[in-house]
Design a protein that fits this description.
By secondary structure, the chain is mostly beta strands. The chain has 1 helix and 20 strands. Strands 9, 10, 11, 12 and 13 form a 5-stranded antiparallel β-sheet that branches. The radius of gyration is 28 Å and the shape is globular. The N and C termini lie far apart (87 Å).
Length: 318
């Protein structure tokens, strides 16, 4: 009798397990799959120019052309570093009023913070013709950026993607370089600078020989920055001509801005020090962030064409 009862209970438990498994199986199958909405990985446009403002805030420059398709695209944005893993980089496009009859900028490629304040210079590259060769002076205050004045480039240029303002003694110095696409070298040119509107002294120059990358598609200088100690940082880049890449960039420390025996600004080039190699990325901007405790950080921004832009801290630079 006990054996019979045990077998009966066993069959009941076995049947119950089958029923439960069937219900679970069909219950799961009855739940329709919920499609996930398509989300862009990043909406940050190119960072063709980059300038540190304060704390974790930067100004980003975008190289939209003045065409019907791109007329309303962002030109200048506030870019903020992430505070948490899930937040990521945030950015806000600014609706700036560009003075003059030309209207909105075309091919803005560089930005520089003016030492000792919240003034900035933004420069068009000169790629698009004689009407797109302007330099803008802007001031940031209490979350607002306004363009105060503009001037035409004081010298003939072609494809300038690197502009920087630094200080030698009490003088402001304006520094720039043409990207020199597929050429082995370019010129670093500099002059004294006064502001609002920008006015320039006589330009001097020195030849800079590109090292890496080289050959067809290489650009010896696409970005420049100078820290408070006068050290000059530059970026060289390779662009295959395809908006999907491949790209390649190298960040260098190439020399120092000093005063000569008469106190005039002078570039002292040294043997280039490779600071970073970024395969797959087209770096087009660089900015130095000065820390309250006296150190510094170097950030780069990319224009990866179809892939948009990113901002990243370079490690190991103090």
């Amino acid at each position: 009798m006990n054996i019979h009862n045990t077998n009966t209970r066993g069959r009941k438990l076995f049947l119950a397990a089958i029923v439960l498994s069937t219900n679970i199986l069909f219950g799961c199958a009855a739940i329709p799959a919920q499609p996930q909405a398509v989300v862009r990985a990043s909406t940050l446009p190119d960072l063709s120019g980059l300038a540190w403002v304060e704390d974790d805030l930067f100004i980003g420059i975008h190289d939209a052309k003045r065409s019907a398709e791109k007329y309303n695209w962002p030109r200048v944005s506030l870019v903020r570093l992430p505070k948490s893993e899930l937040e990521g980089v945030t950015w806000q496009s600014l609706d700036l009023k560009f003075p003059g009859p030309e209207g909105r900028s075309s091919d803005l490629e560089s930005a520089s913070r003016i030492p000792g304040g919240k003034g900035f210079l933004f420069a068009e590259s000169g790629q698009e013709g004689k009407d797109d060769r302007r330099i803008f002076f802007a001031v940031y205050s209490n979350g607002t950026l306004n363009i105060e004045s503009q001037v035409t480039w004081p010298v003939p240029i072609e494809n300038v993607e690197a502009v920087e303002v630094c200080r030698v003694g009490r003088q402001l110095v304006f520094l720039y370089a043409e990207r020199a696409d597929s050429l082995p070298a370019t010129k670093l040119r500099w002059a004294t600078l006064s502001l609002n509107p920008p006015e320039f002294g006589a330009f001097r120059e020195v030849t800079y020989e590109g090292v890496d990358p080289g050959g067809k598609g290489a650009r010896p200088v696409v970005a420049l920055a100078v820290d408070t100690d006068g050290f000059i940082y530059s970026v060289s880049a390779y662009d295959s001509g395809n908006d999907d890449g491949p790209f390649r960039s190298v960040v260098w420390r190439i020399g120092k801005m000093i005063a000569d025996e008469k106190g005039n600004p002078q570039i002292e080039l040294g043997e280039g020090e490779r600071l970073a190699t970024l395969d797959g990325l087209k770096v087009e901007s660089i900015a130095v962030r000065e820390l309250n405790e006296g150190g510094k950080q170097v950030y780069v921004g990319t224009d990866d064409e179809h892939y948009g832009g990113i901002i990243r801290l370079l490690p190991g630079i103090h």
